[in-house]
Amino acid sequence: MRNEKMSLEELRACRYFPAGSIRAYDPALNAEWAFFEVHGNPGLIAYQGRRLKSDIHGWYSSAEKRKAALQAWLKSIERTRIWKTEQRKLRQQRIEEFLASLKPDQIFYNTWGYEQTQVEFYKIRQVRGRRAELIQISYESVEYVGPCAEYVKPDPSSPLGAPFWKPAADGGFATRVGKITKWEGRPVYRSWGY
Predict the structure, then answer these.
(1) Which of 45, 149, 164, 167 is the most buried (most CB within 10 A)?
(2) How many CB atoms neighbour CB 130 within 10 A?
């Protein structure tokens, strides 16, 4: 069974702890660790989150050094937790600002590809809550720059396909291949196979 599908109790039961270890768990940090002894040396093994692989598995010259290593590890988890919380708030703020800037008829685009660069343009039809209705639109060539390359700009009067709804992401709309972002008015590079 993969650890993503396991309950926390099942996952914790699968983690390795040496025989005779003294285990502890901090639910606030979702951190689990154990003290043990190997040939008279103090040892520490520690896990965080849903990992089955230990973050720490080592031996120390003294119990004080082991305790210091544990405290440093717990502090780093707390710092990471605080940083992630701050980043989530900042991301949410950017999404709210992005949503406030959306208006019907704005043009967005997405580029993707490996040996060639695909370009797709979209027009916003309407905005409701945290989502926008988009429709893909055609493009027209502005300048050829090689036998298999050109710069293009959107043609808002030529829709392609049916409209669809997309939830707002950080600064655009998420796709399977990149992000749909606001078109800034400059022609966009496009290339195709040779």
Answers:
(1) 45
(2) 10
CA distance 172 to 166: 10
Give the closest residue to 46 by CA, choosing from 27, 78, 69, 19: 69
The amino acid that residue 117 corresponds to is T
> In the block, which residue shows the tokens 């993969």?
2
Q: In what order do the strands lie in the sheet with 22-26?
A: 22-26, 31-38, 41-48, 56-59
Residue 125 to residue 141: CA distance in whole angstroms: 24
Q: Concatenate the DSSP letters of all residues of 115-179 into one string.
A: SS-EEEEEEEEEEETTEEEEEEEEEEEEEEEETTEEEEEEEEEEEEEEEEEEEEETTEEEETTEE
- C-alpha distance from residue 164 to each of 39, 126, 129, 154, 170 (Å): 65, 10, 15, 18, 19
For the whole model, what pTM was predicted?
0.67
pLDDT in tens, 124-170: 999 999 999 999 999 999 999 988 999 999 999 999 999 999 999 88
- Strand 107-112 relative to strand 56-59, pairing: unpaired
- The backbone region for 83, taken as left when phi is positive above 0, alpha when psi lies in -120 to 50, beta otherwise, is alpha
> What are the two backbone dihedrals, phi and then psi, of residue 117, each rounded to the nearest 5 degrees?
-110, 110
